[in-house]
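Continuing from the previous page...

OK, I double-checked the sequence for Histidine--tRNA ligase against my notes and this is the correct one:
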Amino acid sequence: MAKAASNKADTLKARLPRGFVDRREDEIAAQHRMLETIRQSFELYGFEALETPFVEYTEALGKFLPDLDRPNEGVFSFQDDDESWLSLRYDLTAPLARHVAEHFDAIPKPYRSFRAGYVFRNEKPGPGRFRQFMQFDADIVGAGSVAADAEICMLMADTLEKLGLTGQFVVKVNNRKVLDGVMEAIGLAGADKAGQRLTVLRAIDKLDRLGADGVRQLLGAGRKDESGDFTKGAGLDDAAVERILAYVSFQTAPVEGADRMAFWEQFFGAWTDVVGESVIGREGIAELHAMMRLCAAAGYGFDRIRADPSVVRGLEYYTGPVYEAELTFPVVNEEGQTVRFGSVAGGGRYDGLVGRFRAEPVPATGFSIGVSRLFSALQLIKSPLLEGTRKPGPVVVLVLDRENIADYQRLVALLRGADIRAELYLGGSGMKAQMKYADRRGSPCAIIQGSNEREAGEVQIKDLIEGAKAAEGISSNAEWKAARPAQFSVPEAEMVARVREVLARHFPVG
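Thanks. Re-ran it with the corrected sequence; updated structure tokens here:
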């Protein structure tokens, strides 16, 4: 007894690390169909595939690290045998910047590339917050014109439509320079105001959740939430608060039937009033205006792509236009409240990142799709894309007498040679358990050959799908044995053709 207890104590506990998930075949196949649709959309725009490794030198991640003095804060890091720090990639953009800089003279510029893969965050996991998740990025490196940013926004819109989300999203566009101009206009320019600017931007980012009154409090003295917790505000005076609220509250699309050109002039004119005489602010407005004209010329209206002052994305990193794709259909959250699904993709212009590796500046812009979040959205709307064509499980060849296992292996080889998914039962159970195994594998049919069939040069094919249907109307074991539903004998030479018939009956092609 003591020995048995010791063995039990030594057994490892099977447990998944926090912030990670396992995925089974159905989900993998459905996600693959989604990724393939995205890939085809990106290729249509002339983007080419690039794959970078999971590991980069920690210093190459640059601004993506929360704290360079503590490499394991925010990222998973380790030291190589030469004591260099290496990290699992935090996103797919920093590796792209390193690749472009390393192969700068060999790649065509502008360089259009897309990348898909897992990224890793060494952060506290929580509901919907994982330490490993997939992104799908598209970037244009080497193009300084806002025409590149407009192309990225059009690509975002086209991709979501190809995924079946037509009329259920909007791509919202802002510009870092406009926000810098607003900050300048209210007296928050300069390095000494960086902390206050960040507080203001975080407040703006909460507009959808808290509304204008909540943001007003966060821009001023601070806000106490429903639980009683107090968040310190940015400490702006009333005039500055109202100026920012006027900016983020602009109507972002014309009413039905309104003159669109007149709306644009009024819209960007109002933005110009908010940034005042700020040169960088006016430059940002001009860039936004140019982007909207390009999108309109290509047939993208306000219902798909529009300027929106509430877009705030990693502004310590972006240098110009910023954008995000927001899904607009309602969902019910964990508290039973009806809310919008929110953003599934975002990005912007980051002209300084590649330049960290080179003496000259290298313009770049791009966006990233949150694959898991987008996949969840498609599941919510029951997208036909995720259903795909139901794939049959393998044909299972049962093993009734193990001394003749080579004969069974030969039958499996015949099926595989005809491109029919098949497997040999490798367990040690009897026929009844083998049939249950075939059912659990989703097998369309099982191949049965006892000694009598082998001597006669025949096999029995049991159509498991048809058999399950027939069994529903059979009440007794004796009746089942007499009927032996959907089970028939054929010569070995006809086995492949008859299995094909079973597959065609249940899984028609085209």
